[in-house]
């Protein structure tokens, strides 16, 4: 019974992942992400149900489109699998046993899955376009605020937590407004990174954010080293080093590190 439940939880996560890949592709192009049918990005052919099964369709089709035989980006498979694992991690962190299953825990699970989905979308867009989608952060922040109100009504949560959410939400909105001003354009990306950090702290505990920070620093350092070796940049060239660092999608590493940290935190031995 528990095994079947875990399989279902993994599948639910892959569905969230599938939606994330669609949003990552369409949002920068300002296309509809809710009603328009999915299609192959190469031949534009409308996809059928057999083409849209998360993870399994990629495996069964050999990573190629069934209609034009063009290779499908492995990022689809990676994101769907990552979200499936994240779904299990989130589930285990709030429901260690099936006996704890309740409306409240399911609501908490859905809430955290929405959070993880927003992180994946932010990460994917930043990696592809080197831009941070602020509306996604604002929508996620609003979901977090509604959730804390729900907990206050249903579970009589401490009123201090509500004040904390109000303050975080206010800071996120203010940073969103500030980063739209042209005069601050050169600081825009760093302010948006700060915006994401504040957003994360609305959803996760300090221990997870600490793990996130460590993983982000490790991944950023590794990325700089790899890029320097790949482009054969002279270590003494300070200007070149500055330019390559500016090209690194920091939000991508930050968001993915946060999801991994959530998975790590769910492992019982840690």
Layout of secondary structure:
Layout (H helix, E strand, L loop, with lengths): L1 H25 L29 H5 L13 H21 L8 H27 L4 H22 L3 H20 L9 H16 L2 H26 L6 H9 L3 H17 L4
Mean pLDDT: 82
Global outline: globular
Unreliable segments of 5+ consecutive residues: 236-245
For the report, how would you describe the main beta sheet?
none
Distance between the termini: 26 Å
The arrangement of helices and strands along the chain is HHHHHHHHHH
Radius of gyration: 20 Å
Can you count the beta strands?
A: 0
Secondary structure: helix percent:
55-70%
Beta-strand portion reads under 5%
Alpha plus pi helix count: 10
Task: Decide which structural class fits the backbone.
Answer: mainly alpha
In short:
The protein has ten helices and no strands.
Description:
The protein contains 10 helices and no strands. By secondary structure, it is mostly helical. Helix 3 packs across helix 10, helix 5 packs parallel to helix 7 and helix 6 runs antiparallel to helix 7 (188-203). The longest helix is centred in the middle third of the chain and has 27 residues, at 103-129. The radius of gyration is 20 Å and the shape is globular. Residues 236-245 have low confidence and may be disordered.
């Amino acid at each position: 019974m528990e095994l079947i439940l875990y399989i279902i939880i993994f599948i639910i996560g892959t569905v969230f992942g599938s939606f994330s890949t669609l949003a990552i592709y369409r949002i920068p192009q300002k296309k509809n992400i809710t009603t328009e049918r999915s299609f192959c990005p190469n031949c534009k052919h409308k996809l059928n149900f057999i083409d849209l099964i998360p993870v399994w369709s990629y495996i069964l089709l050999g990573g190629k489109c069934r209609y034009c035989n063009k290779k499908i980006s492995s990022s689809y498979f990676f994101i769907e699998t990552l979200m499936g694992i994240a779904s299990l991690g989130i589930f285990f962190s709030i429901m260690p046993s099936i006996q704890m299953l309740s409306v409240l825990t399911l609501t908490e699970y859905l809430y955290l899955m929405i959070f993880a989905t927003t992180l994946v979308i932010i990460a994917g867009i930043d990696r592809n376009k080197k831009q941070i989608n602020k509306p996604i952060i604002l929508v996620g922040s609003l979901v977090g605020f509604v959730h804390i109100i729900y907990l206050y009504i249903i579970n009589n949560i401490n009123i201090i937590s509500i004040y904390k959410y109000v303050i975080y939400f206010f800071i996120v909105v203010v940073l969103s407004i500030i980063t739209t001003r042209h005069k601050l354009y050169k600081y825009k990306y760093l302010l948006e990174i700060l915006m994401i950090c504040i957003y994360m702290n609305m959803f996760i505990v300090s221990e997870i954010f600490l793990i996130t920070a460590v993983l982000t620093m490790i991944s950023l350092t590794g990325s700089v080293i790899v890029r320097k070796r790949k482009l054969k940049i002279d270590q003494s060239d300070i200007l070149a080093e500055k330019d390559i660092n500016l090209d690194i999608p920091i939000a991508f590493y930050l968001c993915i590190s946060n999801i991994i940290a959530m998975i790590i935190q769910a492992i019982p031995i840690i």
